[in-house]
Amino acid sequence: MLYVFFRGLLAIIYKLIFRLEAQGLENIPDEGAVILASNHISNFDPPTVGIYVKRKVHFMAKEELFKVPVFGPLITAFGAFPVKRGGVSKDAIKSAITLLDSGKVMGIFPEGTRGASGAAKKGAAMIALRSDAKVVPVAIKGGYKPFRKMYVCYGEPITLSAIIDASSTDKLEQATEVIMAAIKKLSSNS
């Protein structure tokens, strides 16, 4: 209930301040495991990716945020779960796969940090391949400038297991390239 209330409130705020519009929402499956894989340009990105999606979107968040009074419990209520920065967080990967195995939606930023200019980590691909979740590429276009139009664009779902070369020695690298190419394509479309 809290999630739905804040999602609606943020949708109104983002619409008024950033003139945010969503495109391609029909590409998000109504059921089953889905990863929304987005470019990452600002701290405002998680709400941007999730506020127009009908289903609850869960995000990884740096573990330090969970220690902030009021904010930590709030993001936990919104479905966020902690990830350690600077290395592989086995607990976060387990949490992500468990969440997806139960047919939920997860948002992730393959670049890891804001403005990483396309240099993606392999975590999103690994989680997608292990969970067999559909990956919906997402592009946030615009610069969070008040009263200037910006967009969140959802591309067609990708089933990585269906397109990855089974004989490939580095499936994670190949899957990461597929995800990032789809995000880049969406970002460059007008």
Distance between the termini: 36 Å
Number of DSSP-assigned strands? 7
**Side-by-side strand order of the widest sheet:** 1-7-6-2-5-3-4
Q: What order do the helices and strands follow?
A: HEEHEHEHEHEEHH
Q: Percent range for helical residues?
A: 25-40%
Q: Indicate the low-confidence ranges by residue numbers.
A: none
Q: Which structural category fits the helices and strands?
A: alpha/beta
SSE diagram, text form:
Blueprint: H1 2-18, E1 20-23, E2 34-38, H2 45-50, E3 57-62, H3 71-77, E4 81-83, H4 90-101, E5 105-108, H5 123-131, E6 134-141, E7 150-154, H6 160-163, H7 171-188
Parallel strand pairs: 1-7, 2-5, 2-6, 3-4, 3-5
Antiparallel strand pairs: 6-7
Helix pairs in contact: 4-5, 5-7
Structure write-up:
The protein is of the alpha/beta class. Helices cover 38% and strands 18% of the residues. It has a seven-stranded mixed beta sheet. It is globular and about 50 Å long.
